[in-house]
Every structure is written in structure tokens, then in C-alpha cells.
Write a sequence for this structure.
């Protein structure tokens, strides 16, 4: 039975009393087709007690060129009945989009948990978290349904983290929940989250707690860096060495070692910029800097990490210059920088610094550098953890699966146009009849008129309902051969009366029959004929009859004349989606 | 001087409800010369588990590990922890907090320019209860 699911209609009247297959072309995006039918569409859609479910469709490649079709077996239907078929097509959804929905919800709910991850160690809190998460997913899925016009079926493995946690039944009178439910896929049912799932979720949590830990460590070492920087600025020797280096940048030896003052750039900032400096915030970005505790995008840390790297590089360079200044063999450099014991004039240098003094400054610079480097390392660690977390969330979200479900309702019935239906009520047969009173055998062609529609292709079984409709029919037949001119009959009043036909030279047979099986019918009734009056003076005939019994074989008139008739128009049908 | 610590893990990641032995592992490296670290492991009071190998006889929720050398190359620092369930509601996960301190060769905490101990680096490990 051809059916076009894209048009939602049967292309032919449905057969009755016989199993048949519905076949429709489908696209590659269709992954499963199921169906139900009932006398009303409401019953079929709700799959009520009066509905019947079809076996799941089988996909076949058929036609030339071969195209993908789905085939569903439909059990025998009753004749002259209206049916509504509801086919459910499962389509491949936009998995990327669904995964993004789940990942976004997981991301958001985990963010809400920031700093309180340990609270999930109790089962009640853990279930509440999962329940809230599923609510968010279902709401987003509902929005997707509204947008696409299709239903969404959300499925998860039986022991999934995403399996719905136990929840109280809805309060009486509460509005019905239009959001798609989350269904556990077949498998060993489990009320608990699988061990592997919990371990994986713990790993996901670990990335988040690691982020919190690293941000905490960043804050600690940034605070340390600010304090160490303040102590450095408070060192008179630091002020002196910086001042002398700036003042003597043009000295050839100093210029060779220190072509510009970039190594002193960190020092040029005012003290109130130190917090920003240790945080990796450029001075001009201080007003727009965001709180990193609220940052979940690893790329948003890039500028801070690079700013801190620049400061660390300045500190490293400056520390190395200090190390050089404190090295005895580089005394000319120290003299050129104005830090030697005497001036060029030979007078004592009021800014002279000893190697120990310079080393003390270098050590403090190193403290600042280590603190800032540790802080920067923690920011890089946060970036790594956020990337790991995002990858874990995506992997975790992939456990969710979904199908977009399209429901097509089709009204169908087993009736067609009158001439088509008529064939269901009338059949032809050929048989042999015997009438003892006239001592005659007839080979005849007859027509059988049933009291209800009969599908001759349906196998006849006594155990099936509708035996009277399918088996009993009135018959009218005409013998194939005329009476023999010498054939006579004995009537009540005379004998040797010559028989004549009723229709021309043929009698007619009227009666009733019973189909014994798919082919053979037993019939009985009266054979009508005319007899001539035995009185030779009376020329008129009169109609007489006698009983007969007959056996016949169905003759498929439809098969014989189908090619001569008009093609059968399609039955009316409606599409509702 | 300078200690970087990251990537905490608990091996194995699961433990029977009654408790068991796990190893807390994390990655550490020095920002300069070779240094050392000492780590303090603790379980929050809300969690019904204590350490059977606690180092403080007055607080069974704390283990302080031995000082371990840290070099420029990242290496795994390890500490074996023996957990035991005590009375209290069952939990799905146990959170073990670690504080990593930079120490000198004698195991004493390093100090900053003002003589105050350097900040520690917090790490968290999660054990899933089977």
C-alpha cells in the first residue's frame, strides 16, 4: 500500500480483511518509524485502549533507482470503517545544538555552584543539583520544540547522571508540564547514578575546584607581590640605584648593558598602581578591569597573563643588571652608573653602594619576581583548568541523546468509489448444478451478491469473525449450454413435457450459496424454465421450476476485467501535523 | 625560591564507603633553584571521614606530609592517606583539601621580606565513594 509520509496521505483505498504493508519513501534523516491506528485520531494519538500499535517500520531500498523506503505491517482492517493512522517519525536532531544546550546548562549550574562544590557530597543536594540542571535542559529543549515545530525526545542511559532524580508527584491542579521528559534508555534499570558517571562528574568538579584554588592562590601571591613591591620601593638603596641608573643611561658602559630604561618601567608607575601591576592589569585598563572570580572564559585572562609576563621580564632584567653591578669584575660598570666609591673627580661618591647593598636590592626584586611569577602561573593554571572544564562538560553533555519526533496523522478507510466498492459485494463463479426433478446437470456462470463487502484476497477461516458476511451470498446463474431439444420433464399432470429456456433457450438458476473455502462454494435454489403445455391445442408456455444443488469455483471477474475499467481514484484523506 | 603546585589527583579515584587507602598526587616545580615543599592535608568537619594516619594526635582530620624536594622539572609529589568512615550521614564524595607550603631544607616554612611565612597553595582532591 503506497503511502507518502511527506504528504501524509494514503495513495489508495486501504484493503480490508487482509494484512497489508504500508510503504513510504523516507529521507536519510528518519531513524525510526512507528505507528498506531484507531477509529479516531484522538484515540490513535493518545494510544488509548481502543488503539492498536503497528510493528516498528523496516527500512528497505526499493525502486529503480533504489530509494529508501519504510515498510510497516498493518493487520487486517474491517471494511467500511474510518481509521486514523498516526505515524511517528524519529528524525536525527541537530546534535550539535542539543549538545550545546546541555553543555550550556551544565556550565551555568556549575558556575552557580562555584565555591560550594563540596555541598554536592550529600545525596539530597546532589539530586537537587541534577534536578535543577534537568529543568534547565528541558526548558531549553522546549524552546527548541517551539522553534522547530517538532517534538523532542530526550534520552539518557539508565544509570546516567542526567537520569531524572526522584521527585514528588505534581500537586493536584498544577498545570501540565509541556516540556519534553527525559527518558532513560533501555538497559539494566538503576535508581543510582553509575560509578563511572560519578567518577567522571567528580573529575569535572575537580576542574572547577582547581579553578577556585588557583584563583585563591593567585590572590594570595598577588597580595604578597604587592607587599614585596612596597618593601622594595621603601628600600633607600632601591631608590638610589634606580635614580643613578636613570641619570647615567647615557654613559657608554651603562648604555651597552642597558640600552633603555625598559627594565625600570615597573618602577616608573606610581605606588597606587602596584595592585594593578601585580594583577596583570595595565594602568589604562584599571577602570574597566573585571573581577576574575567571575571569569569563566579562559581567553579573558590572556591580557593579564601577558602583562604579568612583561613585568616579570622587566624584573628579571633589572635583577640581572643588579647582579652585574654587584660583581667585582664589573666595577667599571658600577662606576659608570654612578654607584662606585668615588666620582670621576676622585672625590667620595655620596651615592656609592656596596655589593652587599646592591645584592640586597636584587634579592628583594627577586622576591617580587617570584611572587608575580607564581601569581601568573596560577592564572595560566586557571586558563588550563577552564579549557579542561569546557572539554569535560562537552564530553559529559554528549551522554545526552535526543530525537526529534514528527507525528503525522492520516485518516484512512477501507472504502473507495462506488464502482470499486461494488466489486467487494459481487463475485462471479463457474460451477456445475444438478437438478434431480428435471434430471439435469448444468455448467453455469453465476454472480454472487454478498450481504457485506468481501475481500477475495483475504484468506477464509472459520475462526475469523464475519463468517456470514464473507461466506453467504445470493446467486443468479445461467447455464452455459441450452436445453437439449429432446429433453423432457414429467410434471404432476403429464409426462414427457419438453423443456424450454427462460432467457432465450437457457433456464436461470436463483438461490443462495455458502463459500466452503477460498475457492469452492456450495449453492442451492431453484432452476427456472418454461414448459410447453402438453395440450397440443394450447400454444402457450408456462414457467416452472425445480430445485437444484451446485458446486462452484470463484471466478475472479475483477482480475479479468480490471484492465478494461477506469483506473481507481485515490481515496480522500487528510493530513494533520 | 618559588614553588608552583597544580593538578591534584587522588589515586584511585574511588573508595569503599567504610574508607580505604588513597594516594594524593600533585605536580610541583620550582621557579628557580631547587626548593622543597611540605603539604598539610585536611578533611572538612562536615565530612564523616578521618585519617587513620593522621599526624596530629589531637586532630584526626589532618595529615602533614614530610618535606619533599622540588626541582625545576615538574614532578609528582605523593602522600598516602588512610581514610576511615566515622558516624555521620553517608556522602557521595569526600573532599580532601591540601595546602602546599614552600619550606627550607630543615622543613621550616620560607618567609617573605617581612619575615612572615609565604602563602600556601591550596589544592583539592575528590574521592568518589563506591
Amino acid at each position: 500500500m503506497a503511502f507518502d509520509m511527506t504528504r501524509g496521505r494514503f495513495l489508495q483505498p486501504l484493503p480490508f480483511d487482509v494484512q497489508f504493508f504500508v510503504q513510504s519513501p523516507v529521507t536519510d534523516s528518519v531513524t525510526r518509524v512507528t505507528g498506531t491506528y484507531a477509529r479516531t485520531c484522538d484515540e490513535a494519538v493518545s494510544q488509548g485502549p481502543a488503539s492498536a500499535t503497528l510493528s516498528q517500520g523496516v527500512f528497505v531500498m526499493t525502486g529503480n533507482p533504489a530509494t529508501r523506503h519504510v515498510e510497516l505491517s498493518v493487520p487486517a482492517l474491517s471494511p467500511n470503517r474510518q481509521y486514523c493512522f498516526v505515524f511517528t517519525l524519529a528524525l536525527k536532531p541537530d546534535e550539535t545544538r542539543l549538545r550545546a544546550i546541555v553543555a550550556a546548562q551544565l556550565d551555568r549550574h556549575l558556575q552557580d555552584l562555584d565555591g560550594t562544590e563540596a555541598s554536592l557530597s550529600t545525596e539530597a543536594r546532589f539530586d537537587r543539583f541534577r534536578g535543577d540542571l534537568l529543568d534547565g535542559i528541558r526548558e531549553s529543549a522546549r524552546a527548541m520544540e517551539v522553534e522547530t515545530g517538532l517534538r523532542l525526545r530526550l534520552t539518557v542511559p539508565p544509570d546516567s547522571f542526567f537520569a531524572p532524580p526522584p521527585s514528588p508527584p505534581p500537586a493536584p491542579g498544577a498545570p501540565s508540564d509541556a516540556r519534553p521528559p527525559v527518558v532513560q534508555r533501555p538497559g539494566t534499570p538503576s535508581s543510582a547514578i553509575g560509578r563511572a558517571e560519578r567518577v567522571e562528574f567528580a573529575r569535572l568538579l575537580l576542574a572547577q575546584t582547581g579553578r577556585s584554588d588557583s584563583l585563591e592562590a593567585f590572590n594570595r601571591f598577588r597580595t604578597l607581590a604587592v607587599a614585596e613591591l612596597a618593601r622594595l620601593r621603601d628600600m633607600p638603596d632601591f631608590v638610589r640605584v634606580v635614580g643613578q641608573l636613570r641619570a647615567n643611561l647615557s654613559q657608554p658602559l651603562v648604555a651597552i648593558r642597558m640600552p633603555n630604561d625598559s627594565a625600570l618601567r615597573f618602577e616608573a608607575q606610581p605606588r597606587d598602581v602596584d595592585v594593578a601591576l601585580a594583577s596583570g592589569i595595565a594602568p589604562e585598563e584599571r577602570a574597566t578591569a573585571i573581577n576574575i572570580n567571575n571569569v569563566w572564559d579562559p581567553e579573558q585572562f590572556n591580557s593579564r597573563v601577558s602583562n604579568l609576563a612583561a613585568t616579570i621580564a622587566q624584573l628579571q632584567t633589572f635583577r640581572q643588571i643588579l647582579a652585574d653591578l654587584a660583581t667585582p669584575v664589573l666595577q667599571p660598570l658600577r662606576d659608570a652608573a654612578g654607584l662606585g666609591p668615588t666620582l670621576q673627580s676622585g672625590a667620595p661618591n655620596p651615592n656609592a653602594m656596596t655589593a652587599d647593598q646592591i645584592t640586597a636590592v636584587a634579592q628583594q626584586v627577586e622576591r617580587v619576581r617570584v611572587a608575580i611569577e607564581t601569581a601568573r602561573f596560577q592564572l595560566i593554571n586557571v586558563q588550563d583548568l577552564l579549557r579542561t572544564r569546557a572539554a569535560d562538560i562537552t564530553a559529559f553533555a554528549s551522554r545526552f541523546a535526543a530525537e526529534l519526533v514528527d507525528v503525522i496523522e492520516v485518516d484512512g478507510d477501507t472504502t473507495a468509489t462506488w464502482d470499486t466498492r461494488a466489486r467487494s459485494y459481487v463475485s462471479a463463479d463457474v460451477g456445475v448444478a444438478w437438478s434431480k426433478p428435471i434430471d439435469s446437470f448444468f455448467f453455469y456462470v453465476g454472480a454472487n451478491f454478498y450481504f457485506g463487502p468481501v475481500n477475495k484476497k483475504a484468506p477464509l477461516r472459520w475462526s475469523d469473525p464475519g463468517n456470514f458476511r464473507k461466506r453467504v451470498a445470493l446467486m443468479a446463474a445461467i447455464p452455459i449450454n441450452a436445453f437439449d431439444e429432446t429433453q423432457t420433464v414429467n410434471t404432476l399432470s403429464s409426462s414427457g413435457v419438453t423443456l424450454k429456456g427462460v432467457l432465450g433457450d437457457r433456464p436461470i438458476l436463483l438461490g443462495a450459496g455458502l463459500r466452503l473455502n477460498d475457492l469452492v462454494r456450495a449453492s442451492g435454489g431453484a432452476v427456472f424454465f418454461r414448459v410447453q403445455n402438453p395440450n397440443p391445442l394450447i400454444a402457450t408456455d408456462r414457467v416452472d421450476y425445480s430445485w437444484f444443488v451446485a458446486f462452484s469455483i470463484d471466478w475472479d471477474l475483477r482480475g479479468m476485467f480490471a484492465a478494461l475499467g477506469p483506473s481507481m481514484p485515490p481515496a480522500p484523506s487528510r493530513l494533520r501535523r | 625560591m618559588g614553588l608552583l603546585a597544580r593538578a591534584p589527583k587522588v589515586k584511585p579515584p574511588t573508595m569503599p564507603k567504610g574508607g580505604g587507602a588513597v594516594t594524593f598526587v600533585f605536580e610541583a616545580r620550582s621557579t628557580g633553584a631547587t626548593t622543597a615543599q611540605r603539604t598539610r592535608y585536611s578533611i572538612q568537619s562536615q565530612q564523616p571521614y578521618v585519617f587513620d594516619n593522621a599526624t596530629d594526635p589531637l586532630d584526626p582530620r589532618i595529615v602533614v606530609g614530610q618535606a619533599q624536594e622540588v626541582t625545576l622539572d615538574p614532578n609528582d609529589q605523593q602522600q598516602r592517606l588512610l581514610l576511615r568512615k566515622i558516624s555521620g550521614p553517608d556522602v557521595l564524595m569526600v573532599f580532601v583539601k591540601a595546602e602546599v607550603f614552600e619550606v627550607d631544607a630543615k622543613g621550616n616554612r620560607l618567609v617573605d621580606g617581612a619575615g612572615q611565612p609565604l602563602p600556601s597553595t591550596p589544592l583539592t582532591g575528590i574521592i568518589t565513594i563506591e
